[in-house]
User: Fold these one by one.
Assistant:
Number 1:
Amino acid sequence: MATIAFIGVGNMGGGMALNLVKAGHQVRAFDLSAVALERVVAGGASAASSAVAAATGADAIITMLPAGTHVRAAYEGELFAAAASHAILIDCSTIDVATAKALGEAAATRGLAMVDAPVSGGTAAADAGTLTFMVGGPAAAFAVAQPILAQMGKAVIHAGGAGTGQAAKICNNMILGATMIATAEAFVLAEKLGLDAQTFFDIAAKASGQSWSMTSYCPVPGPVPTAPSNRDYAGGFAAALMLKDLKLACEAAQGVGATVPMGAEAQSLYQLFVNNGGAVTDFSGIIKLLRGATA
Ligand code: NAD
């Protein structure tokens, strides 16, 4: 069993760190929030006094932080210097591709193994250990990270070199954001055309309009009982996080000269929804905006 430093034990990182404790690892947690730390300490992790204290001598260093600026500051400021030469560095945060690539390259020049390993699945999957990890980095680093990530997830997929884990994450979520809006739009139109929502679902779910946004996460209540639409769009994947991912996708597209008109439109609609008070609403709640209501 390994000694693992876990930096950032918030909504996602908390559950992930606890799954590593359950797998038998010695987990040293660090977070700026005392409340976040308390949860993992109650579950068997030890609280480190700083990121450096957590990382020094650890076999693995995992970060689960809000954004690229936090991740860059953590590695460049402290973690690269504190990491043992044999340690595997794993950033699970969702951040911009450019920063992930730059950090992977900076680690390599220091002789350290690093992967970007963002996740798909929300806090329920983090708690249950059923996340999907999309991993970018050298094959040798992936081989070391894979068994650790497998203890927090149901799928661990190597996407390619540094930054490609983040690329996979934002491209996936760009599809998700756009298909959710398209699905929500279609249900509103169907309703106005006199179609019953369940009937339209039964047809479209078996026709070419089918997508995950429809059949696993239907934005109207009823057809998919587990979907957040059945609990007034509470919980699930917050619209503010969808907006963050769409912004990352559009920025990345701009950086490489890719044309993403649907992604850009999805970003503006989620921005409008967030501005109208929808930030903490599940992202399928965008249907309220399309109905002309605020969040
Ligand atoms: P969160 O805000 O709950 O957790 C982040 C934690 O990092 C907080 O506890 C904060 O105190 C801590 N932190 C910030 N700066 C720090 C520092 N310098 N040192 C130590 N701790 C620091 O956020 P979250 O929902 O857990 O999301 C984490 C990442 O996972 C984000 O990049 C997010 O986009 C991504 N993500 C979230 C979800 C989700 O459903 N919540 C799903 C997939 C991916």
Note: The chain has 13 helices and nine strands.
Number 2:
Amino acid sequence: MTTISTQAHDLLARMGVAKSLYTEGTLTARSPVDGAVTGKVVESTAAEMQAAIGKAHAAFLEWRVIPAPKRGELVRKFGEVLRTHKTDLAALVSLEAGKIASEGLGEVQEMIDICDFAVGLSRQLHGLTIASERPGHRMMEQWLPLGVVGIISAFNFPVAVWAWNSALALVAGDTCVWKPSEKTPLTALATQALFEKAVAAYKADGHVAPEGLSLVLNGGAAVGEALVTDTRVPLISATGSTRMGRIVGPKVAARFGRCLLELGGNNALIVSDKADLDLAVRAIAFGAWGTAGQRCTTTRRVIAHKAVHDQLVERLEKVRVQLKIGNPLADGTLVGPLVDKQAFDAMQAALAQAKAQGGTVRGGERALAAEHPEAFYAAPALVTMPAQTEVVCHETFAPILYVLKYEKLDEAIALQNGVPQGLSSAIFTTDIREAEAFMSAAGSDCGIANVNIGTSGAEIGGAFGGEKETGGGRESGSDAWRQYMRRVTNTVNYSNSLPLAQGVKFDV
Ligand code: UN1
């Protein structure tokens, strides 16, 4: 049987990654599937990060004057390369992040989709014309390239979230420097190799592409720090924990840089007494336990109407015990491993706290320990809670679902909003009044508020992100592209006089 490491190396070779990059370094890469070492990845130093920023900045000076639709052509080529290598990259995502096969494929599909979206945008980076109060004057707004974009990504979406940022940044005329999660360096190397294939194909067609359009530097906190503090990087887009955001945000603010933060979620799904329970059960099962609960959009709380609560819990429990846990690439697996021991320990600690705070815990124990002593599989957990206690307000990145009870919709919405995070939310109801109330100004306070759709698995076409401790950033679709550009207001006088605004007189 081929080992995980051999499988990973075959995939890396197919995608064109030089072997020395993952065999001759000091950063140990491991697969959560069996805990085995998959590589020794070359790590960068802070000085190398500074040099990379310099290179990306030099590339920016050239890239910003290339017409946006021509920049779009590079992103189109990248989308093509991703289509060709979709199964390779998806399998590597499964091996390195532990996602089941269809979710690995889904992640690469998100990359392809954002490339298509960005190609269209490359002809739509439009501003406004604005009525001037002065005769013979015209005002307008332009969106111009911003500079080097620093991208910090998390292990759970090791490549798609980078693509959301880089595809938009590249069509916007920016260049990118990427610091991936230390837990997923191999997928980052593969993505870089695929990007370089796209650049080579673009150049082969006669287009100009400066060196250093997009660079990746694996490494630890010092490398991240060098990226975050560098004034040549006007935008830092960081995805990860609220703890990370608390460190990154103030550092970027201190140098008046811009931050796009996509941090923790603690997403709730309200199940009304007027819900279609079949739909709700399916949505909750995927949202809470799919991806082994390791999405920032994972459904962590269900707030169920008292009339359906017990029935819902019973149905969820039936589904829960049937979920197949195991090797994410094996047929039929629905729940893969947790990323590492730390994640498993955090899950156990949260379950112990839930019990201490009056909860009834079903599941949550370690699974497949005999077969994989170095890997951390866990049975999904279903926890009924008497109230929204402290542990429920905390994001534990694991397949734990807390279930709470409500009587009146206002109470459910208050519970839904009563946590520090504000990423995704949903209501299951067939009552239009309830649905509209949930989406209204007095409803969910999250960046995403869905009706009869779960909290996770958002499409790339919408703006993605959330409020409060989630960090306030919006990535991906809608007008998120504007954050990767700088807004310039131009006033043009085509008259023969020079009237001042606000009627001011200054006769000389
Ligand atoms: C994340 O977990 O960081 O909506 C991103 C979703 C995915 C993206 C999740 N499209 O679940």
Note: The chain has a mean pLDDT of 97.
